Every structure is written in C-alpha cells, then in structure tokens.
C-alpha cells in the first residue's frame, strides 16, 4: 500500500519516539521539522543511486538562445529532473558529449534524448525504498526533536545498511550489463 508524505513523516516520527502528525501544515514542532526535512531527505536519497523506479527518458529540443561558449545548443531540463544519467542523439540515450549547466544541458546536437532520474510521487515508491526513506528521515529529525546524538548516529548507521539492501534489491531488476569489448578476452581467443 503506497504511503503519503504525511504517513512517511509520521512513521519516521514514531521511530524516534516523537508524536506523529496528521498534516504537514500543523502548528507543531514535529510538523515544522518534517515539513523542512522531508523534501530534502527524499530528493537526496532518490539522487544517491540510479534507482530503477526513478529512471526516465525525454526527447529535448534546443532553446532559441544558444550558450555563450563550448557547445552550440542549450536544452531545458524537464521539471521533474533530479540527475542526468546520459545524453544521446534522437532515439539513443547515450553517446554524446554534454555538460549540465544549471537547469540546462549544453550539447552540439540538434535534438537529444536524455536519460535521467526523476522526482517520483510517494505512490510510486517501491516497498524496498520506503524503510530506507523512513529511517533516514528519522535520523535527520532525531537531533532537532530529541537532542539525542547517540540515537541519531545509530539511525544513520541503520539507514546506511538499508541503503545497501535497497540498492541490492534494485540492481536485480534488470539484465546484468554485458562486457562488449574486453581486450584480454580478444587476445585469449586469437
């Protein structure tokens, strides 16, 4: 069952022994801290690894105004963009030289295909990612709400372990990458 941002924050608050919230706009210390820390923590965890559930592709067309130097064209990034994975010519998502500059990609191509990580809705978070997000959020909320640095340190350690497990589970959701060109194999076969 997908959880909302409020439910994720309430679960993190319970994890540190604080009073859960029912609305992020409540006039409580817990809601104020959750409102400030949740989007930062969520986006940081989404961007820390190329999670399969965050990957997207988009065809981008250039801006009318070219960049000042180094590349011929500038392409605006999608509004849900968190991190660029690769850029390629139309129909292929890799293979072009590019640079991310602010909210734009600079490149020499006429049109590009962008492979990127996107910000996803809470309803799209898979079951293996939710414990990681809740634990990391609890760690972030622990010091401002409980002033317990020891408990916060333990929660950060637990979040690191949950990050490893979540990355392992996520990595098993695609065909393993094949080594296409490895000179030692070629030398051995000749």
Automatic annotation (TrEMBL):
Organism superkingdom: Bacteria
Protein name: Uncharacterized protein
């Amino acid at each position: 069952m997908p959880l909302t941002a409020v439910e994720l924050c309430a679960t993190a608050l319970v994890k540190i022994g604080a009073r859960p919230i029912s609305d992020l706009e409540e006039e409580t210390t817990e809601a104020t801290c959750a409102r400030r820390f949740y989007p930062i923590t969520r986006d940081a965890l989404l961007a820390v690894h190329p999670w399969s559930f965050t990957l997207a592709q988009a065809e981008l067309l250039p801006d009318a105004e070219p960049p000042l130097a180094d590349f011929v064209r500038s392409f605006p990034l999608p509004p849900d963009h968190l991190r660029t994975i690769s850029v390629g010519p139309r129909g292929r998502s890799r293979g072009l030289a590019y640079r991310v500059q602010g909210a734009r990609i600079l490149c020499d191509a006429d049109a590009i295909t962008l492979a990127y990580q996107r910000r996803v809705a809470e309803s799209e978070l898979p079951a293996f990612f939710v414990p990681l997000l809740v634990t990391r959020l609890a760690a972030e909320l622990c010091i401002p709400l409980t002033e317990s640095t020891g408990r916060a340190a333990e929660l950060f350690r637990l979040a690191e372990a949950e990050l490893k497990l979540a990355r392992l589970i996520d990595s098993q959701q695609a065909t393993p990458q094949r080594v296409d060109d490895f000179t030692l194999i070629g030398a051995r076969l000749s």
